[in-house]
């Protein structure tokens, strides 16, 4: 409901609008209205007793629901009266002047990149041309000085700031909310060369505004709106016009027909629904979509079983990569549903889920011989805690697998070392070419297969017995015997095998390229590093190589041609393999002090 202020100025209703409160994202659920101010924190003295007995002051506030837990104080109740509803610990009342409302893309752009174009800056007509003193030598060799007015400098400065120069643009954590109004500059404008756009944690909440922004960026390929709260779309209805669009502006500012070129859409932490995604597909908002990121959206079922339409058509027919990390998925049949729903799917990311708590559906999945394009499966940080689960996963043929940070190799009392697990996967998965972001070499495969064959030849190994519950270990042993012959390996210990393999097969060639201001002139360095080196250890090595930057200021970034800004190595405890550091990788060594300077407004 609205507030109770009788003299409130006429303005658009606040309830439902996205706002920022001290930099935190929230949604207005009530107000503005008057509520009783809290009592003073200290008891009044005798002289103030009369003032204390007076009626409590009223203060104008709005009720908000924060996006993140721990920021609110209640569930929408004030002094026993419920004014709005939200989960406990997410609600709060804040003064009207402390909330920041959304702005147009023009204002967000101008605030970050063109401050001189805002209302409080000098206008073009008021801006005086700059006068410089120029020293020169006349024809007789005498040194002289004269004043020169650089006519047109303003125009030159504007040309240097042309929107056409933007290839990557980040309006993340700003008040950007809408495509309109055009309240900074007039006339036709666009971002014709923009390819990557980050709108994470902005106040954007309408898909129609996203579609309109895409029309401004005809070459846009990467769009991220993570941690926003977008309103759902009802299937069967057209997308409404963007809010605040002038009547004199047509619904399309670009040549017809416009086809959005976005190939990667990041919707992590948005609480988007499959119903909305299906509506977007039916409206052809993203017809070229190939990579869809849906991490941390509470999709416990992963993919519904009814996404295939009655006519046999499927949503997002060009989809090649689907990210479902952190959704609480525990049913292995998610893999089969993903393949059936998206026939061109090549990569499926299921990291940080609950897969492994149950093996339901996994054995049947491994036995399915239906042709498919899925060749890469990502299972880091799940619940793979038994050799039986590993055997079932190993029975599923893929070219690339990632399965790190699982209970089998983690915790105080792990059942196996990461090295042994790697050898088991390699030996039991003959199609595997990359494991945990590292290429499986011929030498490594030979060593792993001979090791497992030696254990099988000896017989009675408890690990192989557990693997055999969900995997044809005997069949694999016969296959390996046909390749390597009989191997007498009963005396080989896991420690000895792991030691040899670690030294021989897990060094990766890495180029360390200094990019920090203090070390930019230092030559790049090539090093062979163990795949299991942690980020903290690599930072110490970089500090020894590039001494001008202290250890606590070193920032590392893995260059990745698929990501404009690369992959930050931001967890000191992680191993290089977790981030996909392999042979030929380039790691940029930066200075945190430079990063802070670049991000200052």
Description of the molecule:
- The chain is of the alpha/beta class and 601 residues long.
- The protein has 15 helices and 27 strands.
- Strands 11-13-14-15-16-17-18-19-20-21-22 form an eleven-stranded mixed beta sheet, with helices on one face. Strands 6-3-2-1-7 form a five-stranded antiparallel beta sheet, with no helix packed on it. Strands 24-23-27-25-26 form a five-stranded mixed beta sheet.
- Helix 10 crosses helix 12.
- It is globular and about 90 Å long.
- The two termini are 37 Å apart.
- The N terminus is likely disordered.
Rg calculated over all Cα atoms: 30 Å
Beta strand count: 27
Proportion in β-strands: 15-25%
Shape: globular
- Mean residue pLDDT: 82
> Strands of the largest sheet, in order across it?
11-13-14-15-16-17-18-19-20-21-22
Give the proportion of residues in helices: 10-25%
Largest sheet report? 11 strands, mixed
Q: Which oligomerization state do the chains in this entry correspond to?
A: single chain
Provide the structure class.
alpha/beta
Q: Which residue ranges are poorly predicted, with pLDDT under 50 across at least 5 consecutive positions? A: 1-10, 121-131, 250-255, 499-505
What's the N-to-C terminus distance? 37 Å
Continuous helix count: 15
């Amino acid at each position: 409901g609205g507030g109770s202020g009788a003299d409130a100025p006429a303005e658009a209703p606040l309830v439902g609008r996205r706002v920022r409160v001290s930099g935190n994202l929230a949604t207005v659920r009530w107000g503005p209205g008057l509520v009783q101010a809290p009592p003073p924190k200290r008891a009044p003295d005798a002289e103030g007793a009369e003032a204390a007995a007076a009626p409590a002051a009223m203060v104008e506030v709005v009720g908000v629901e924060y996006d993140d837990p721990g920021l609110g104080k209640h569930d929408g109740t004030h002094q026993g009266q419920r004014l709005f509803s939200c989960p406990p610990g997410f609600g709060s009342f804040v003064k009207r002047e402390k909330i920041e409302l959304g702005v147009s893309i023009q204002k967000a752009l101008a605030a970050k990149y063109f401050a001189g174009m805002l209302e409080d800056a000098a206008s073009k007509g008021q801006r005086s041309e700059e006068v410089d003193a120029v020293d020169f030598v006349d024809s007789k060799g005498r040194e002289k000085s004269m004043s020169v007015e650089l006519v047109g400098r303003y125009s030159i400065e504007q040309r240097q700031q042309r929107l056409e120069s933007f290839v990557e643009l980040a309006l993340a954590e700003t008040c950007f909310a809408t495509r309109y109004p055009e309240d900074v500059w007039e006339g036709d404008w666009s971002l014709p060369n923009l390819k990557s756009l980050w709108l994470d944690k902005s106040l954007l909440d309408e898909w129609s505004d996203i579609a309109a922004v895409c029309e401004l960026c005809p070459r846009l390929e990467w769009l991220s709106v993570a941690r926003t709260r977008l309103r759902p779309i009802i299937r069967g209805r057209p997308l409404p016009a963007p809010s605040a669009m002038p009547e004199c502006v047509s619904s399309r500012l670009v040549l017809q027909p416009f086809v959005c070129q976005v190939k990667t859409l990041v919707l992590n932490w948005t609480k988007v629904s499959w119903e909305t995604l299906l509506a977007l597909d039916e409206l052809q908002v993203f017809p070229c979509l190939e990579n869809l990121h849906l991490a941390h959206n509470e999709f416990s079922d992963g993919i519904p079983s009814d996404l295939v339409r009655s006519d046999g058509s499927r949503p997002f027919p060009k989809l090649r990569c689907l990210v479902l990390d952190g959704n609480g998925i525990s049913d292995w049949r998610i893999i089969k549903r993903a393949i059936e729903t998206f026939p061109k799917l090549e990569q499926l990311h299921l990291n940080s889920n609950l897969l492994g708590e149950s093996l339901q559906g996994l054995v049947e999945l491994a036995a399915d011989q239906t042709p498919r394009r899925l060749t890469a499966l990502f299972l880091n940080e799940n619940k793979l805690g038994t050799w039986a689960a590993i055997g079932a996963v190993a029975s599923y043929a893929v070219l690339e697998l990632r399965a790190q940070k699982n209970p089998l190799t983690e915790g105080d009392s792990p059942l196996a070392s990461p090295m042994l697990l790697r050898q088991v996967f390699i030996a039991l998965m003959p199609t595997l070419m990359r494991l945990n972001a590292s290429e499986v070499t011929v030498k490594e495969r030979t060593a792993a297969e001979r090791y497992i064959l030696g254990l099988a030849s000896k017989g009675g190994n408890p690990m192989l017995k557990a693997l055999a519950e969900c995997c044809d270990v005997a069949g694999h042993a016969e296959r390996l015997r046909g390749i390597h012959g009989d191997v007498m390996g009963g005396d080989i210990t896991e420690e000895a095998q792991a030691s040899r393999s670690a030294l021989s097969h897990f060094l990766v060639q890495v180029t360390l390229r200094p990019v920090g201001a203090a070390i930019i002139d230092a030559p790049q360095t090539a090093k062979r590093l163990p795949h299991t080196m942690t980020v903290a250890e690599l930072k110490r090595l970089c500090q020894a190589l590039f001494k001008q930057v202290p250890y606590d200021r070193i920032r590392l970034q893995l260059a990745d041609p698929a990501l404009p800004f690369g992959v930050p190595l931001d967890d000191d405890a992680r191993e290089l393999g977790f981030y996909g550091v392999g042979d030929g990788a380039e790691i940029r060594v930066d200075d945190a002090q430079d990063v802070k300077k670049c991000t200052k407004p």
